[in-house]
Amino acid sequence: MNIELKTFQKKAIAELRNQFLKLWNTDNRQIDLIFKSPTGSGKTIMIAQFLKDLTIDPQFDVDKAYLWITFSEESYEQSKNKLDNYYDNVGELGLLDLNDLNKKKMTKNEVFFINWQKIKSSTKEGRILRRDSEKSEWDKGIFDEFIIRTKKEGRELILIIDEAHRDKDTTLAKEIIDIIDPKIILHITATPKEEPTYSEVTNLKKGFVEVDRLDVIKEGLIKEKIITQTKENLDVVSKKEIDQDILLLELAHNKRQELLEIFSQKNININPLVLIQLPNDDKARKETQDKSKLELVKEFLREKKIKDENIAIWLSEKKENLEYIEKNNSDISYLIFKQAAATGWDCPRAQILVMFREIKNPVFHTQTVGRILRMPEAKHYDILDLNYGYLYTNYERNQINLPDNKQGENKPFVHQSKIKKNIEPIVLNSTYLSRVDYNDLGASYEYTLDKVFNEYFNIVDGFKGESWNKLKEKGLELKNPIVNNKMIVDAEIECYDNFVKEIKDKGIDYNNETSQNDIEKTYNLLCYNKIAKQEEESRKFAPERSWATLKRSLNVWFQNTIDSDREIYYKIIVCDLLKENSVLYKAISKSFEVHKDVRLKEVKEKEERKEQFIKLEVPLKNLFYTDDYEEKSVKKCAISPFYIKKSYSGKDNEEKFIKYLESKDTIDWWYKSGDSGRDNFAVKYFNKDDNKFKLFYPDWIIRLKSNKILILDTKKGNTAKSNDTIYKAEALQEWIKKQKQDIIGGIVVNLSDIWMLNNRHIYSYKSNNVDNSENSLKDSISKSDFKDWIDLDNVLI
Question: What's the whole-model pTM score?
Fold first, then answer.
């Protein structure tokens, strides 16, 4: 089979080979090499090429053989067939299975495939293959002696465990692995139970190679996301008097017709396949109901005029129309199965999955969702609907469980600060070097939403007291908002291998009144969906980069307009956005349309000149923080409350400086500025070491009662004398020279509890008199060493 490997696959194979050879050259045995790669990334193909590369490598001409273990009969056959097809039935590696046990042993570069169940002594077949026998040479079982003979000739074994997150970590499994005693154990999995530590990898105790999910998506191998039933779907279908099972089938049938029509319009010869998974307790269901789920499904399909020859069945007791089902243009439109198709089976045209909840043991089998993950032609299409998988299920959220995953970096904002009422902001000439366009809403969207919403709700600046009535007049419900939940809807799963966490985070369900935590998650998802579902080009933005901006902008507007607690306006927003005729959604859509031109202009300016000059109002009126921040009691800060990050390098130095500022009567207010983005004050400087322009974000902006402005950046130890600090300090002085305001600025360091300022055009910091602890001077401060520095006390007058 002539397969052109993707770039990420070639990179992973090369890294696998590199780590494998390093581990091989150690004296250790049974060394774990974990290959973590997302479902649908082509793990088997990558391993096939990896084995081929090892085999033909003249520098690794080792007498070796491979034992490939899977956890089901179907997956072992599929893995073997994939390698056979990849090698075009010829090649340097021999592929064996149970039918080849009569060979008595493996020879050099052979791969023996076996289902784990076949060698577990707890199974009937396991007892046969591993039962002691007086007729054998070592009185061992057939499988054991097959391994012993292979090793007796000095041949090394490499154990390959496919779907390695399964049940190998048992006492019995350890006993089998000890018999095999492989030099290296290669674990192939999308979700390893445990990842090696950095120390284990660097010290060659274990190996670890990971494929990034985003690289797989970019290459078009897997679908961009999996979408559950939507509220919009349910509102349309559930108007009929039908039960929930039929509702799910109706949704799946309708979606298949939509996709089929799109494929047809695009002249793409693909017949999208619907997978219908029956519950394992279908027999019990038949005892309690008038028909089994299989009968219910077949009856539904007959009513939809679906012919029997277009329906495949894959059950242990019954198999029909399966021969050519994997072909993209197969006539089979529906596959009814239980667990047989859940693991290993590969049919990329499968795009829709119906999963019925079990009665006895309602546990959602997440692995089944992986069957609708692949793309039929290993590429994405220009119609987004064709790049998604669709899941319709009546499982409840608490029935979908796996161990929690690590929390991602995109944390929600949980704290808010506002400018104090008596603070008069200042305006500074700031600079922003924009990045490439990501089709995101951008920071300026907050101002667009504010303007559009004020016009839409007829809110006049300065007359906020009438806001409640204005919002009511537009139909927004403000009194006692309640968010109710039911089944999972509107979940969009972008990472299948993190399915459980994503569906818990992103899905909406309805049962009683929702907790504030669920309202937060629902709010996030609604913001994402309202962006993602914009159909007109004039209103489209990238949801993954824009939902947080939309949420923040809504929060700011509601906070400023109705001045209510966050818990209240969150409920108001969520309740309204869940409605079919949402008032806010109309205003949001209008804001997108207005902002499109604004954003396009910004992007054009970025392309023409990355540098943007901004009249920045300091301090910002509203600031938001994640739970990485904690409140600190201060008096002179321009915002309230003041939040500081819980942990970061240099925190002790900055807290010492805050204490110093709080003690000065001449200070009107101080403000700790952020270190990124266009909303924070920045000065452009040229870093000679990196040979490029960068932005310098000073830490502190201070206004004295005399109206003098201070722009300071605190440094400590080596950071005070670095080249980067020199470039920043001198650029700041150049900036100050061009301003018409009364501004003093520079670098500040603490020398024996004296805060010293350098505001010279030529920056110099000599630390000859500073000891290695960087906490104090030695006996005295040499005037010659610090002649360019002045006591900050002399400035704060």
Answer: 0.49
